[in-house]
Amino acid sequence: MIITSKDNPLIKTAHALLTDPKKRKKLSQTVIEGTHLLDAYLKAGKMPITTIVSESGMTNAEIQSLLAKLNKNPIIISDTLYKNIRTLGESLPIMAIIEMPSLILNQAIENDCLIINGIQDTGNLGTLLRTASATGFETVICTTGTAHAYNPKTMRAGMGANFSLHIYENVGIDEIFDFVKVPMFATTSHADGLIYHKDLTKPLALIMGHEGQGVDKILLKECTPLTLPQYGQESLNVGVAGSVCLYEILRQRRFKNTHSIR
User: Fold this and answer.
1) Which one in 2, 19, 139, 254 has a CA-CA gap of 20 to 30 Å to 95?
2) What is the pLDDT of residue 261?
């Protein structure tokens, strides 16, 4: 059966999960769109609750390959209805409802972690999650007031990084002091401390702050400051700045003695 009505309960739920953070919180579910995210989700050993495919999408070879890995048949909807509820735009027409992790920070963090303090933009947040995963970080702590890590837009920007990370959300400043047991470093433009002069070879917490206000002052007092060199008038946005820092950490640990071949 092909669903055509926007009033179908499943379709109403999927649309609400895509657009309403309160619905995602209430159901502890979210939606991933497109073949890349679903493939990453399956490769992480996870299985979606429900998969939704457009009628024409059922003939696509890439979609068929993914559907063959599922433990239940997809819900098929009309092409028009799919276009009405999607948020991704022109992409292969498949989405999936998935469980949304809800980890509680209740144990000591003694390895590398990325602390995201009040970042509002889902694109910046997704970029940081993606880079953290690429550089070998496994733990991310998002303080209260940070954009939602499982917002569909964040997950698209993260390109599947969510599924390889342990992400703690809505964490208070006091909880960070209670549970983060590694030295903390924070990016700031208001102090000396060029990143290239710091030893970043041991486990640490890297803190990236709000796009305009920076890292919370209470946190910043307990951190070693990191600054990036700047020669122009415009500063880097937080997603790019965090990526530079994460790759400098990786460079110091894995590539410090590597020389280019001429």
Assistant:
1) 139
2) 46
- Span 117-141, average pLDDT: 96
Average pLDDT score over residue span 3-12: 95
Domains recognised in the chain with CATH numbers: 2-99 (3.30.1330.30), 113-255 (3.40.1280.10)
| Six-digit token string for 157 | 């920007």
Query: 184-187 and 205-209: which strand pairing?
Result: parallel
Q: How long, in residues, is the chain?
A: 262
Selection from 122, 118, 132 nearest residue 161 by Cα: 132
For the sheet containing 184-187, what is the strand order?
166-171, 139-143, 113-117, 205-209, 184-187, 224-226
Return the closest-CA partner of residue 36 out of 126, 119, 146: 126
Could you give the angle at the alpha carbon of 91 between the alpha carbons of 85 and 97, nearest 5°?
50
Q: Please give the backbone phi and psi of residue 6, each rounded to the nearest 5 degrees, phi first.
A: -70, -15
Spatial contact of 187 and 128, defined as CB atoms under 8 Å apart: no
- Measured distance CA(151)–CA(21) in Å, rounded: 7
Q: What is the DSSP letter of 74?
A: P
Amino acid symbol at 2: I
SS3 for 166? Answer: strand
Return d(Cα 219, Cα 172) in angstroms, integer: 11
Reply yes or no on whether the pLDDT at 257 is more than 50: yes
**Average pLDDT for residues 234-253, to the nearest whole number?**
91
Phi and psi angles of residue 248, each rounded to the nearest 5 degrees, phi first: -70, -40
- DSSP labels, 85-110: H-SS-SS-SEEEEEE---B---S-B-
